[in-house]
Amino acid sequence: MSLSYLPFRLIISLVVGAVIGLERETYHQPANNKKGSIGLRTFSLISTLGTLAGILYIHNLPFFIFISSVFGLLVVAYYILQSNLTRDVGITTEIGMVFTYLIGLLIGTNIIPMQLILAIVVVLVLILSRKEEIQNIIIGIDREEFHAFVSYALIALVILPFLPNTSFSLQNIPGALAFLKTYGVDLKQYSSFEIVNPFRLWFIVALITGIDMAGYALERIIGKKHGRLMASLVGGFISSTSTTQSLAQESKKGEGEAKLVASALFANLTSFLQIFILLAPLNGAFLVKSTPALASMILTTLVLGLFFFTRNEKLKNRKETKKKPIEEGEIFTLVPALKFALIFVSIKFISKASLIIFGNNGLYITSVIASFTGIDAVLMNVAELAGKTISYQTALITLILVNATNLLSKSFFSYLQGSKRFALRFFLSVLAIIAASMVGLLVK
Fold first, then answer.
1. What pLDDT, in 10s, does the model give residues 290-323?
2. Collapsing DSSP states into helix, strand and coil, what is residue 374?
3. pTM value surpassing 0.70
4. How confident is the model at residue 154 (pLDDT cuts 50, 70, 90)?
5. ∠ Cα 110 113 114 (to 5°)
6. Which residue among 122, 246, 309, 437 is the one 20 to 30 A from 37 at the CA level?
7. Where are the domains of the chain?
8. Distance (Å, rounded) from C-alpha 149 to C-alpha 155?
9. How far is CA 132 from CA 32, 124, 436, in A?
10. Helices (DSSP H) in 60-175: which residue ranges?
């Protein structure tokens, strides 16, 4: 590290220590109604000591080991004295001191970017300053909820990252092409045709169960009325199809179906907003031509979503005055998510096969079939063709057909795995949105 940057890093270190120390000094201890015994000055010195130790680590390793050892002994001695005086065996402040020293050390050694160091500081201060809130959340967590969290962590953080993000085709199956050829079926030209991608398949499972987990967590934090809605709005930007499927599964519990329909509509509303973002850089003229249809879809979805969201629907289980404990596996269910993923992949397989059979000549047919699993790729293709290979009117008709098919497919998925009441309400809403999108054809 150049010595010219030393004053800057020392100043940053002082400020970082002061921020952490200020939080500790203003922390109100309920037991003795006194502020923390150490604060801004102490933590500023600790972070600066860490920065100097980091510089010594580069230039004088033995002295660095000596300083770090002395600091560790001082922290241990402080903890012993404080715990004896206050009868408080908590070590939050002491751990904060160690972290502050390490942050100073990172600043001095410059082994990770400064932006990351500052992000660590923000997270550390946030954790230190939210003791009561964190305790309240932890107190409210039961064993079943913890099991559900661990189960989801296994799905998303243990299994998913290790699955190959590779498309497996016929040529990857040993002897498949030769076996089919013995029966007179020559699929050599389709040998690179994708059958399945393990990572993407499991990602759908992780996404659906993740939306369930996020919705449940937000319900616990901000209330049942708004929690599921917030999770659905975020999930809609990732995959409105998976989000709708997650809500359909939730509807089988028989509670708050109107609110779940509203959440599904708002998830699809965000996907309509994404179309603007998608088309703008590809074909501005086509976006202008599509605006009346998109605006009608967005307005209709918004009105329907607000209608269902504000409905004062009586819950089927309202007779139960006492809240039942959550049973294990009730927060999210894996089997329905797996079923949907398999259905999704199967339809995607059929869509790609249809694209090979019909080619670009059957634009309407191929676009409609492909839209069963998503519309982004289809609309990108249509946007690139609009005004060149095809007319803007043809492109607009394709957009409306694609969107209609996609919405109807979501209704079909909802019927398969959701409650019939949820599926019917969502289906009627879909018909209204599709009818509204036809307005775009009337505008010349």
1. 999 999 999 999 999 999 988 865 544 444 333 3
2. coil
3. no
4. confident
5. 85
6. 122
7. 3-139, 143-315+325-442
8. 10
9. 17, 15, 49
10. 61-86, 92-109, 114-129, 131-139, 143-153
